[in-house]
Amino acid sequence: xxxxxxxxxxxxxxxxxxxxxxxxxxxxxxxxxxxxxxxxxxxxxxxxxxxxxxxxxxxxxxxxxxxxxxxxxxxxxxxxxxxxxxxxxxxxxxxxxxxxxxxxxxxxxxxxxxxxxxxxxxxxxxxxxxxxxxxxxxxxxxxxxxxxxxxxxxxxxxxxxxxxxxxxxxxxxxxxxxxxxxxxxxxxxxxxxxxxxxxxxxxxxxxxxxxxxxxxxx
Length: 218
Fold this sequence. Notes:
The protein has helices spanning 3-26, 33-57, 64-78, 92-109, 113-139, 153-165, 199-206; strands at residues 82-83, 89-90, 143-150, 169-177, 185-192, 212-217. It is α+β, with helices and mostly antiparallel strands. Strands 4-5-3-6 form a four-stranded antiparallel beta sheet, covered by helices on one side. A two-stranded antiparallel sheet has the order 1-2. It folds into two domains: 3-138, no CATH class; 143-217, ACT domain (Alpha-Beta Plaits, 2-Layer Sandwich). A hairpin with a 5-residue loop joins strand 1 and strand 2 (89-90). The chain starts with a helix and ends with a strand. Helix 1 packs antiparallel against helix 4 (92-109) and helix 3 (64-78) packs antiparallel against helix 4 (92-109).
């Protein structure tokens, strides 16, 4: 493979990975600008290595090494997924982005430029532009997931009863007591509302409940 062709593929993989990484970096995600560039560059280099071995020594399959990237990148992606103390799962989009960035790098490495460029743009569109639509759907869904904390069990029970009076249905309810020796109650709740409502307005209304310390959508 000519040096010029190798340089083009390396540069293109860095550009595609960098564009994807900028979006994640701006959102303060675990994997950011440099991580995405390295993943895309590494995938492209792996694919070129596989092609080199096949063309020079006439052995093996040029796609065999690249296939290991698709499965191996899962270990890196898993490191970006965390479960918070509020039972929130974070980092799934970042993990999926790393995996697709690796796939884009494989396309660059084998010289499939048209796919690599269009694929990279599609990934960026999904992660950046469609995020607004995703937030809209979440904020207007009938289902709302909450993390709440109250001063006492009595205040928490009153909050639950108030939601039942509003004809809300509970699909998940997990309660934990404070470790600080007081009577505070923390809980994660999944509520199905009778009709779609704006979650921001809903939380503003529910936040005036007696004894409430924290209410957050998870």
